[in-house]
Specification:
This protein is 57% helix and 11% strand. The protein has 16 helices and eight strands. It has an eight-stranded parallel β-sheet. Helix 8 links the parallel strand 4 and strand 5. The termini are far apart.
């Protein structure tokens, strides 16, 4: 049995952190589903920027949408939804088999709206309606301004992938925003089974502290943060408040472990996959990491619900001069800025290709 299947049987969903038109057209995504236990996927502006910029796969679609009068963001979202609805249809049998727990794809609202509550909510509702698929998450950043939009979107029945979370302290408010939205639905007599995941970014912690802590702590911070957050997740879904909501028909907002590709060339390429095995969670991984895990990964003891030794590890980083809270805030700000940069580059690529294709006719 391959390692991805073992991890799936442990109770963790494996999602691919990538989508391209070529991945769909070639049958590669289908093969990952059949052979490597992939049960969903995530996307972000950086992924789409690379996909559209580095291939001609989208040129015919861009030309057709230009003739329909689409430009800029509207044109991009149609391109993205063309891919994501096709992927959603591929995962639909998994979605149905798991009663809506698994088989999801994700599309992010414009990163330029990360600090604009009202516009984020409006775009989330519009994109979900435009997609017309029950298994498509709309990604909303877990920023201060994003939290009210998350609550409102859940109350409106829009499935949400809360993105850009970097710590327990950022995860808990996002989880509570989800729960408030569910409780409001219960109070209003609406069905409370609106799905959500909360995405914790892992590897960027270790990149951020590279060379700033003793060698013995190398590549251990991201895992410790994930362990601490997993404990908070398990504690929350075991709480009486959460269980009252589940008794009314709600489902847990699953913790999703993101940014799990190893960045340090000296570290094992499956470091985060092996360390973060845990039931009732999702791990979304880059294509190269998935292939490496299938080739030589191992599934060991799952993460401990009590956080294991994470607090001792985090205390060692604090002793080394790392301020965890300040770094978490910086990583979220940098993550939002990075996605905004990719978004602007993506819009420039769309404009450039549009101009070139219009000139060719």
């Amino acid at each position: 049995m391959k390692a991805p299947q073992k991890l799936h049987e442990l109770g963790q969903s494996l999602w691919l952190d990538n989508i391209t038109r070529g991945l769909l057209a070639s049958g590669t995504l289908r093969r990952y589903v059949d052979e490597l236990s992939i049960t969903g996927l995530t996307s972000n502006p950086t992924i789409f920027d690379s996909a559209i910029k580095n291939s001609s796969d989208y040129d015919a679609s861009i030309r057709g949408k230009l003739k329909d009068g689409k430009t800029g963001e509207a044109l991009f979202f149609e391109l993205a939804l063309d891919d994501l609805t096709q992927a959603a249809d591929l995962f639909q049998p998994i979605h149905e088999q798991t009663c809506g727990v698994d088989g999801w794809v994700s599309l992010e609202v414009s990163p330029l709206l990360a600090h604009d509550t009202d516009s984020t909510l409006a775009e989330a509702k519009a994109l979900h309606a435009q997609a017309g698929r029950p298994n498509l998450y709309i990604k909303i950043p877990g920023t201060r301004e994003g939290l009210p939009a998350i609550e409102q979107a859940i109350f409106a029945g829009v499935p949400i992938n809360v993105t850009l979370l970097f710590s327990r302290e950022q995860y808990v408010p996002a989880a509570e925003a989800y729960l408030r939205g569910i409780e409001r639905r219960i109070g209003a007599g609406l069905k409370p089974d609106v799905a959500s995941v909360a995405s914790l970014f892992v590897s960027r912690w270790d990149v951020a502290v590279g060379g700033k802590a003793p060698d013995a702590l190398s590549n251990r911070l991201g895992i410790a943060i994930a362990q601490r957050t997993y404990k908070a997740y398990r504690d929350l879904i075991a709480s009486s408040r959460y269980q009252r909501a589940m008794n009314a028909g709600a489902r847990p907002q699953r913790l999703l472990l993101a940014s799990t590709g190893t960045k340090d060339p000296k570290a094992p390429d499956v470091l985060y996959i092996e360390a973060l095995a845990a039931p009732l969670t999702v791990n979304t991984m880059p294509e190269a990491t998935l292939k490496a895990f299938a080739d030589h990964g191992e599934v060991g003891v799952p993460m401990s619900a009590d956080g294991g030794d994470c607090e001792a590890t985090l205390a060692a980083f604090v002793k080394a001069g790392i301020d965890i809270d300040i770094l978490a805030a910086r990583l979220q700000d940098e993550g939002a800025a990075s996605f905004a940069k990719s978004w602007n580059e993506l819009m420039a690529v769309i404009a450039s290709k549009s101009a070139a294709l219009e000139k060719v006719g």
